[in-house]
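Flagellar hook-basal body complex protein FliE
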Amino acid sequence: MDITTNSLYAQMQSMSLEASGNNITSMPKVNQSSSDFGNILQDAVKSVNELQKDAGAKKTAFELGDRSVTLAETMIASQKAGIAFDATVQVRNKFVEAYKEIMSMPV
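Tokens:
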């Protein structure tokens, strides 16, 4: 399976946009020369973190009896955060696997 940096970023960002309910067509184009992979990955992790913070805030508000937050909104936010975190863990696992493979190559 061939995974390039831009396609991986595009997949992660489209999942993030789907989870946040934004329109996928408004996704910015990635210019290979102007974007650093570390920055792209950092932005993706920040996006997952924001989803988790939002889910936590909705859970707290619901538990405190805030009538503006429904159970459905709380559960959906929680599921979005969980899916985004699972995707992040899978990406991390692929990086670790690739690193181990590179390190086991003879010099």
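Residues 36-107 form one domain.
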